Amino acid sequence: MYTINRAVLRPFAAALALVSATAFVAQAEDAKKADPALANQLDPNAPDKDQKLIDNFAAVKVEDGKYFDKEGHPTYHITNDGKKFDWYAYSGYRRYHAECHVCHGPDAMGSTYAPALKDSLKTINYEEFIGILAGGKRDSQAGQERVMPAFGDNKNVMCYADDLYVYLKARASGAMPRIRPTDKEEKPEAARKAEKECLGG
Ligand code: HEC
To answer: Where is region (Disordered) located (predicted)?
Structure first.
């Protein structure tokens, strides 16, 4: 009787061990979320912070200096009381002001011609953003035609699509107020490599 019982119990013991292993992994995941290396340290006095978006856009993973949110999309990492930016947010700021601000206004504030992307990016997701960037958008309502050019063939834009997206997310959530970033994380080797491949290929 005793031996039979032990044999019957063995799979339960194994299952129990599996459950605790799973619980351990879940705990480890939680611990990872609270990883101080991923947390933002924003300017406490920055106006227009949207805490819900800031939480949504929070980084849960970093890979070669590139941060990703819980949906696996690129996101920003801002530290030192809002003064230090990850490479992609910094690069996105510069690309934006080279390629987009003539129409969309400085700091993504919008103009009479084109919408404020600091508002658009509250709702436009990554896939939509890349689609609009590559394919353009046209609004001919009210007689006045407004055209968002298609940048699909422009490497100076498309090679930095993620940088632009990360910067605009930082603006949309209010994590980045209207400032010119100076301090930044080092340019990752992966960014150097991807840039070279994208521009050259
Ligand atoms: C020549 C002017 C011009 C330039 C340059 C330009 N855009 Fe636009 N963009 C527009 C206009 C106009 C619209 C609105 C089109 C519409 O409503 O259909 C727009 C719309 C958009 C939208 C959709 C916004 C929304 O709320 O629907 C995104 C995203 C966008 N632009 C991103 C960019 C980025 C990023 C750059 C720089 C790489 C850029 N644009 C450069 C004119 C421009």
So the answer is: 177-201
